[in-house]
Amino acid sequence: MKSELTVDESFKLIVTIVNKGKASEVVEASKRAGAEGGTIILGRGTAKKSFLDLLGISFEPEKEIILTLVREDKVNEVLQTISDEVKLNKPGHGIGFVINIKQLLGIIHLLKMQEGN
What we know:
CATH architecture: 2-Layer Sandwich
Shape: elongated
Number of domains: 1
Strand order of the largest sheet: 3-4-2-5
Order of helices and strands: EEHEHEHEEH
Number of strands: 6
Radius of gyration: 16 Å
């Protein structure tokens, strides 16, 4: 039996990378802004410490990567709330970016919620 792929560009993936220990703040902020939740992945930064020292940026090698799938109409609000909460605009506090989604599997409940709005 072949799985059916859903092509739906009305969802975006917000990726936030923060220092270890900050992921729960990101997830809580995203939920307050309307996201369903997020997935937290542990990672390690690879920037050269000496280069960052020259820039006056503290470097924590252990990172948490938060993947947050949201409807396109909520992206700006969720990303802004995350940024405000964990101060992404300050050096060394993390980064956030958005990725377009082309195909989705396993989110029928989200699609049904979107149709109901």
